[in-house]
Task: inverse folding
């Protein structure tokens, strides 16, 4: 007989190579379902297929990381996604996935995150009685002005964080993937990226309780593309950087440079005042002061 031997599907082969380790990490998740989701995602993405050819191990690692975090690839849930990054397939937790991880840890009851637009009725107050009141418009939204997230504690009370459009743009601009057409910053996932950015920043100021390993794993996935070895992690703070290693000074400078008027400059300057002794930050502030013709003391010229 001269029948040709059918070659195994390379996508299926890469996915099912992860099965043993997947089940060793998490025997509560249904591997076959997650494998089916992964197969559909990769078959629809030419970029991910290129990743498979160049680095099939990254596909296997991404599937193992699904088990590590407990975040399903079910497209209906929007917990996590397979995305191409620097020639590798990576598991990228969505903001809803981060919320799930934090609430599953027990100390947070819920997290609410929303974009704010110029035609919304929006009140932000700080001080002794901080609060956010947001009534989204039912008509034309208008220009995007920022995003906030509120964490509601299981024991009562809440903590919130608001980032204006300049601060969000600054985070995007220091991302290595900002110019890639595959970057979620440049797709329909932009609103999700804004919310995820604020939620990650909010986490830094939440009261520290016992951190679930899944929280560490999910946020570490934004920097690495390999199964997480918790024993090698020593500093929790190192796990909460953005998708790439980011210089906080760069974010501050970008936020200043993105200011569109003097009012926004004053508010942004107050948010990043701790960087006023940095020469590049000072130069960016002084340049904007001249651009807007500000003669008042606030923000003061620095440097």
Result:
């Amino acid at each position: 007989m001269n029948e040709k031997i059918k070659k195994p599907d390379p996508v299926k082969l890469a996915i099912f190579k992860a099965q043993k380790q997947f089940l060793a990490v998490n025997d509560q998740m249904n591997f076959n379902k997650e494998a089916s989701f992964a197969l559909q995602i990769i078959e629809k993405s030419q970029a991910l297929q290129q990743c498979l050819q160049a680095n099939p191990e990254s596909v296997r690692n991404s599937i193992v990381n699904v088990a590590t975090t407990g975040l399903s690839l079910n497209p209906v849930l929007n917990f996590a996604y397979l995305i191409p990054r620097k020639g590798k397939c990576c598991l990228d937790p969505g903001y809803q996935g981060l919320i799930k991880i934090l609430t599953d840890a027990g100390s947070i009851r819920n997290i609410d995150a929303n974009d704010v637009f110029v035609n919304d009725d929006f009140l932000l107050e700080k001080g002794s009685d901080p609060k956010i009141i947001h009534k989204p418009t039912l008509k034309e939204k208008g220009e995007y002005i920022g995003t906030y997230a509120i964490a509601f504690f299981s024991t009562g009370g809440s903590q919130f964080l608001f980032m204006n459009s300049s601060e969000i743009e600054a985070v995007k601009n220091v991302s290595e993937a900002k110019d890639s057409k595959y970057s979620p910053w440049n797709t329909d996932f932009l609103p999700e990226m804004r919310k995820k950015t604020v939620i990650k920043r909010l986490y830094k100021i939440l009261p520290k309780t016992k951190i679930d390993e899944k929280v560490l794993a999910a946020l570490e996935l934004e920097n690495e593309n390999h199964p997480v070895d918790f024993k090698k992690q020593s500093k929790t703070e190192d796990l909460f950087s953005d998708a790439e290693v980011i210089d906080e000074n760069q974010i501050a400078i970008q936020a200043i440079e993105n200011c569109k008027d003097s009012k926004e400059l004053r508010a942004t300057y107050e948010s990043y005042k701790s960087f006023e002794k940095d020469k590049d930050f000072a130069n960016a502030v002084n340049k904007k002061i001249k651009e807007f013709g500000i003669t008042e003391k606030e923000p003061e010229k620095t440097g």
Q: What stands out?
A: Residues 225-247 have pLDDT under 50 and may be disordered. The chain has three domains: 10-94, 106-209, 248-292. Strands lie at 80-85, 88-93, 108-117, 121-125, 131-135, 144-153, 158-164. Residues 20 and 106 are 29 Å apart (CA to CA).
